Amino acid sequence: MVDALETQDIKELKGVGAAMAEKLAKLNIHTVQDALFHLPIRYQDRTRVVPLGQLRFGDEAVIEGQVSGCEIKMGKRRSLICRVRDASGSICLRFFHFNAAQKKQLENAGRVRCFGEIRRGSTGFEMYHPEYSIIDDGDALEGNDQLTPIYPLTEGITQTKIRQICEQALDRLTPYNLREWLPEPLRQQFSLPSLADAIQFLHHPTKGTDLEQLKQGGHPAQYRLSFEELMAHQLSLIGKRHMAKTDRAIKVPSAGALSDALLQQLPFRPTGAQQRVFQEILQDLSTGHPMLRLVQGDVGSGKTLVAALAAAATVQQGYQVAVMAPTEILAEQHYLNFKQWFEPLGIEVAWMIGKLKGKQREAELARIASGEAGIVVGTHALFQESVTFKGLALAIIDEQHRFGVHQRMALREKGLQAGFQPHQLIMTATPIPRTLAMSAYADLDCSIIDELPPGRTPVNTIVVSDQRRNEVIERVRHACAEGKQAYWVCTLIEESEALQCQAAEDTAILLQEQLTELKIGLVHGRLKAQEKADIMAQFKAGELQLLVATTVIEVGVDVPNASLMVIENPERLGLAQLHQLRGRVGRGQAASHCVLLYHAPLGQQGKARLGTMRDTTDGFKIAEKDLELRGPGELMGSRQTGLLEFKVADLQRDKGLLSQVQQAAATLYQDYPEHVSPLLSRWLPKHQQYLNV
Length: 693
Ligand code: ADP
Ligand code: MG
What we know:
globular, seven-stranded mixed β-sheet, binds magnesium ion, binds adenosine-5'-diphosphate, disordered C terminus, CATH 2.40.50.140, Rossmann fold, seven-stranded parallel β-sheet
């Protein structure tokens, strides 16, 4: 292609010397094409005069009218107020800086035309320091038949300058010199304008274009670009997955006798969803390529059993399985579960946490290294160098959101033997909104356990001010008197674990003073693993009636007889975390309750969030709401946000496009493979362009 804009240096444009080029580089503008992709952040409509009766607060508008009075107001700040009327209404221009001549000029002006933002002032509609000119009747509005673009800037570049640069770039744009990587049939299928048209339009939307639609990102030209960008991300993920499929892993050809035996000894039958997800896993395990599967299932949906079935199938083939949990409490619980399920079947289960020392540690390490232990359960201590497996074929990682991607990779390294990689099964109870799943986790295949075991009653949630704390304490007394058990969860906004633990300790003492007849336990992050485990065991056995805890009990803890949970200061926690906590109750037959004991007064956001918790127990709905209220950055933690930075797309806004984008990306990958890499280099930062996992 001759003279493609991507090969034309920005310095070829008039008025761009070395110094300007350096400043433009800060905006990622190096070539003429880059200038075209430097899109306005918003627009001004100077194409028409808006009748005063049609103004809305917040708009920027051109207005025109008769000056009907000018006066100086003293108020907090001295200002000149000038009232302007037309047949439909009126507005006041307000100047804080003015002189006598200006006042006089306006008084005698007759008609004025102004441009500015419409604000809410003490007189109603106001414009502060508008651009204005005095006009004779009949003066037409000059020259503007396009919306005026406002571009993102950087130091040393003015709006006028960047407009000149983009103008020149647009002048060079022809249908032939901007590479179009979305083939015609695809564009037709998804009703997308051509790239050149979209770019042209976005720099200069024509008169009459709906500004509101542009603001929402709802114009087809905007779709076109978001679509292409999202597609580029999707393609890079498809590429990653594709690469993974060329790696080798142990073949697990079928479920085998061991998983049947495991099912035989259970007091219940797996739900349809558990069976389906197990089949999906088996399918992956049988291919000879490493599985990378994320299992999402709401709290209590029975993910552990699915993991155990996958473990059984793998152990059956003579290989080892590692089960990793983010906290010791949770690891311990898995350990007990797996032991209870597997030891009767003749499979040994080993145990590895950081605090394990001395002889016991040596013994466990030996069992893991020799392969005697078919299953190893632990925390991230499983990564320690001293831990060597005889033949690790499957790594199960529970509650993935607490582990970084690199930890996932580290475990994979452990299992790298003779060119074979372990399969990975990742389980999360923090439902990941579809929108995020697609971008942050799209290198994983995804299964969803969308059914709870029968007989569960949804948790009833109430939102109560802490002014009624005593009533809530009475409620705990009452529930425990009926033989039920309860959690009392203390939250603290401070990062300091010490303070958190202190708060929980204080609360436990206070509660014990009021609830003298109850046996109260306390768990927090500062207890020794053994102490924690002992207390959890006592609570599980019913020896303790009330468990005061920090958020350490957030994930995985399973005590079906506990049916009441009080969460103090729930307004401090994210929705996903509250949902996790609440999932600790509602696990048995009895109707369960969760009391969100907030500290008044609640802000607007706080109200909305606690309201969501009260109104739904559907983890996916809660996750979507959380995303809406807090944005993807906060939801995923800073670690993952890098994955979510887009130039023009906005996951929340454009989520309606995602399934089409996925479809289009698959087609492109298949039918136009030579378009993939140019699209990646157009949209993705360099380090993400390489298709390695
Ligand atoms: P989560 O998905 O939150 O990890 P668990 O695996 O801890 O859930 O399971 C929650 C509880 O449900 C456990 O007590 C488990 O034994 C029980 N359970 C799992 N599957 C079933 C089933 N199909 N029928 C009845 N109870 C089940
Ligand atoms: Mg679990």
